[in-house]
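Weekly sync, protein design subgroup
Attendees: M.S., D.O., the rotation student, P.L. (late)

Item 1: inverse folding check
M.S. brought a backbone from last month's batch and wanted to see whether the design step gives back something sensible before we order anything. D.O. pointed out we never logged the input encoding, so this time it goes straight into the notes. C-alpha cells as presented (231 positions):
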C-alpha cells in the first residue's frame, strides 16, 4: 500500500551504529511525532541528532528496534515514498554546482519560474537572489561556496518549500551568519514551521521556542524531554 498522507512517525527503542566495528551512536531512542507536531532535537555535538534524521531519510539503514511510519516499519518502505513525505534540510545545505533555479526545483525540473520564485519569497530568499549576477540563473560553485552560509541555508529552505514535503526535517547549521541574514533565517524558520509537521535540530532559541516538545540528547540517548517552559 502506497503512503499518501503522513500520519505519525514513531521511534521505539531505536539503537544504531554506523558499522558493526563502531560503538552505538543511538541507544534505545523512543519518541513520537504526530501530524502537525513540532519536535526540536538539542544536545552536544556528536550526541546523535543528525543521525536521527539520516535514519528517517533512509540515508543509512540497519537500525535496531522499530521506526514506524504510519505504523509501517520504515525499512520496508521504498525510498521514493519516503522522499515524497519528508523534506530534509541538511546542515551543509547540500547544493549542486548548478543554477539557483536548479537547486530550488531539484528533481522537479518542470517547475515554473513563478513557483520557484514563490518558494524563494516564502522563505525571504528572493531579495538576495535577485541581487546575484543573473539572479535565479546564477551558477553556484561546488557546495555553494560562492554564497554565504546563511544564503545557502535560505536556498535549502526554498527547496524544501518548493518540494512540498509533508514533514520538514531541519538540521540547523551552526555556522555564524551576519545579523541581517540571521534575521532573515529566523523569520524563514518561523514561516517554515507555521502549521507544519517538523522535526528540527535546533541551535537557535527562537527555533526551539516554537516547538511542542524538545528532546535533549546526550551520547546517543534522550536524557530530558519537555516543552521550553518545562526544561
Ligand atoms: P552535531 O551537533 O555536531 O551536528 P550530532 O548530534 O548531529 O552532532 P551525529 O552527526 O548524529 O551527531 O553523530 C553522532 C555520532 O556518530 C558521532 O560520534 C559521529 O562521530 C558519528 N558519526 C556520524 N556520521 C558517521 C559516519 N558516517 N560514520 C561513522 N560515524 C559517524
Ligand atoms: Mg549534526
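Designed sequence read out in the meeting:
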Amino acid at each position: 500500500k502506497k503512503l499518501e498522507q503522513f500520519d505519525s512517525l514513531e521511534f521505539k527503542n531505536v539503537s544504531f551504529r554506523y558499522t558493526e566495528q563502531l560503538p552505538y551512536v543511538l541507544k534505545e531512542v523512543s519518541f513520537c511525532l504526530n501530524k502537525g507536531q513540532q519536535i526540536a532535537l538539542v544536545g552536544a555535538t556528536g550526541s546523535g541528532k543528525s543521525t536521527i534524521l539520516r535514519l528517517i531519510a533512509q540515508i543509512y539503514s540497519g537500525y535496531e528496534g522499530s521506526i514506524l511510519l504510519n505504523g509501517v516499519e520504515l525499512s520496508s518502505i521504498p525510498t521514493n515514498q519516503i522522499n515524497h513525505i519528508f523534506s530534509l534540510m541538511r546542515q551543509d545545505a547540500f547544493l549542486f554546482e548548478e543554477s539557483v533555479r536548479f537547486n530550488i526545483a531539484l528533481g522537479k525540473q518542470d517547475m515554473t519560474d513563478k513557483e520557484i520564485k514563490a518558494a524563494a519569497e516564502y522563505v525571504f530568499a528572493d531579495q538576495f537572489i535577485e541581487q546575484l549576477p543573473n539572479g535565479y540563473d546564477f551558477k553556484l560553485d561546488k557546495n555553494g561556496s560562492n554564497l554565504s552560509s546563511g544564503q545557502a541555508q535560505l536556498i535549502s529552505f526554498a527547496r524544501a518549500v518548493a518540494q512540498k514535503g509533508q514533514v520538514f526535517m531541519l538540521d540547523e547549521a551552526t555556522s555564524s551568519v551576519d545579523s541581517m541574514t540571521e534575521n532573515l533565517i529566523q523569520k524563514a524558520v518561523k514561516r517554515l514551521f507555521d502549521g507544519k509537521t517538523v522535526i528540527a535540530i535546533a541551535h537557535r532559541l527562537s527555533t526551539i521556542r516554537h516547538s511542542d516538545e524538545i528532546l535533549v540528547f546526550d551520547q546517543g540517548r534522550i536524557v530530558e524531554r519537555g516543552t521550553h517552559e518545562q526544561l
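Discussion: Residues 8-226 form a domain with the Rossmann fold fold (CATH 3.40.50.300). The mean pLDDT is 93.
Action: P.L. to compare against the previous round before Friday.
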